[in-house]
DNA sequence: ATAATAGTGTCTATCAGACATTATCTG
DNA sequence: CAGATAATGTCTGATAGACACTATTAT
């Protein structure tokens, strides 16, 4: 079996030796990364963006990303980029979707594998290399619009959203179509990546415990509930939430004042693995 | 804003004109496609495989796939491949995951975007071009093993499965690790693609109605239930299933004998869009 | 008639939605 | 003490699991 030969009478060893990848056009492949965290009182999602220091989209804000290299997985490339950008390790990181629309990058053919990272604390960040600047943006996501704000820099990026339905086999799906309404915009097709990431996070958070990646190692239930409410974009009933979450957490025995709002002290919890 | 210049004093137009993608190594990118259907009585999933006619993995069975070209999305490449292979159009097709492990193809650097297709009828197929042969395989998937059978050709491909848990941020995930136990194997890392696809299908089928892509346009509830049971790998209670599905289907008014098992005639239903 | 399957009724446990009530903390 | 928030109790409605029973067809 090892010595099997192909139509040209070559063994595998011989075949690989003479194999010429040829002149097929090949794309560059990058790993772009959506880094999400929560603000101080868990009332808003934050997205890390870099300001582009070169064409194309010079001066626009973009997702951090970098080339995937031959001796690494795309996941590793994303991880490297995340660590360079935030200095953080051991962070939640998951593949979202791969974007390959022609001309999505005006320079050359680029396919992007998009990743989602969830950080428990907003890291200090500053621009480097190809970036003029780097900053956390407040992210608001509703059925009607996506909005990104950075007050310090007085930047606002706003897209209206329209729902479009399309058929896939027997099934009908709904898609969000963004249209820019602000002066500033996100570079490339990054707004589409953002939409996919939020959709996926909202679908998964109830099953996959991603909320625990957005809080400290110990937390209060009001804090955890605030994370769910902010991610899902709707309020939850306190009692139902606590019933739902009860067997995924355990008390540490300590008390703690919530980062959310002041009042009575809270019991402190940690994530219970099982 | 249009006339903004970068550090080298170039406008965007000038920059793009002089831009040189350079000698960065670039991967080939392929779209591999997992084509799933059901057997005659909905008791088993079927997977379409092609037998490789050249090195590497000469004589092994593999997922169909093809190169993504510069003027198309990966989705379109997958669709083209699906139509070439089965002659079918209007089929459910969705991106699963992108695989980029170094050396996953011994010829050259290849990154694969994996797609899942669900066909309502098993198309007639035959090998072409680079494939010696092309056939539907019975697919069995349990917590312990993945098994692929084609009786006509007397081929069996079996992998034992082991669960491994790993951490991603604060969360612990479980993964299936396959180990080959049969003589025959799937080419490349295609068994890993298969595992991801089945996992995703099982997670989604309750919410995303993919089952309707695996039956005819009209169907009986015993047939539909058989699809769910086969995909999920466990029996469902008849009454619970019918309650669960009732507002997603509507009666056509006709009667029909199920493809599953004989007995009393069934009411015929169709998918109700909403 | 009998075996086999289709289709429905009903009980239970669980859980989300919805409010109400009690407990504890800060100022 | 007043205001605010934490924590828990309880009712309702929807739904999955479990089982039983009736209806209709093929042989």
Unreliable residue runs of chain A: none
How would you name the oligomeric state of the polypeptide chains in this document? homodimer
Largest sheet of chain A: 10 strands, mixed
Number of strands of chain A: 13
Number of helices of chain A: 5
Distance between the termini of chain A: 45 Å
Q: What gross morphology of chain A would you assign?
A: globular
Mean pLDDT of chain A: 93
C-alpha Rg of chain A, in Å? 22 Å
Largest protein-protein interface? A-B, 68 and 67 residues
Q: In percent terms, what proportion of residues of chain A is strand?
A: 35-45%
Structural class assignment of chain A: alpha+beta
What features would you describe in this structure?
Two copies of one chain form a homodimer. Chain A has 274 residues and is α+β, with helices and mostly antiparallel strands. The first copy, chain A, has five helices and 13 strands. The longest helix of chain A has 19 residues, at 190-208. The interface between A and B is large, with 68 and 67 residues. Chain A binds a DNA duplex (27 and 27 nucleotides) through residues 220-222, 236-244, 257-258, 260-267.
């Amino acid at each position: 079996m090892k010595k099997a030969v192909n139509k040209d009478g070559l063994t595998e060893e011989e075949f690989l030796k003479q194999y010429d990848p040829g002149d097929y056009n090949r794309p560059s492949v990058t790993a772009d990364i959506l880094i999400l965290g929560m603000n101080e009182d868990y009332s808003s999602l934050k997205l890390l963006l870099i300001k582009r220091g070169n064409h194309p989209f010079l001066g626009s804000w973009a997702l951090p990303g970098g080339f995937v290299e031959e001796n690494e997985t795309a996941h590793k490339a994303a991880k490297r980029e995340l660590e360079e950008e935030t200095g953080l390790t051991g962070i939640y990181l998951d593949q979202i979707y791969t974007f390959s629309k022609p001309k999505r990058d005006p320079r050359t053919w680029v396919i992007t594998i998009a990743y989602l990272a969830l950080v428990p604390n907003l890291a200090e960040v500053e621009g480097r290399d190809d970036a003029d600047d780097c900053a956390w943006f407040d992210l608001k996501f509703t059925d009607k619009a996506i909005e990104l704000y950075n007050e310090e820099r007085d930047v606002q990026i706003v897209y209206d959203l329209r729902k479009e339905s399309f058929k896939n086999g027997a099934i009908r799906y709904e898609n969000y179509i963004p249209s820019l309404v602000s002066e500033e915009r996100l570079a490339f097709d990054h707004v589409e990546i953002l939409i996919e990431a939020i959709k996926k996070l909202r679908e998964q958070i109830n099953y996959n415990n991603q909320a625990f990646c957005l809080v400290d190692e110990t937390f209060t239930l009001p804090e955890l509930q605030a994370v769910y409410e902010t991610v899902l974009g709707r309020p939850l009933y306190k009692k139902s939430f606590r019933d739902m979450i009860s067997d995924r957490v355990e008390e540490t025995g300590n008390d703690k004042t919530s980062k959310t709002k002041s009042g009575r002290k809270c019991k402190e919890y940690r994530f219970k693995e099982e």
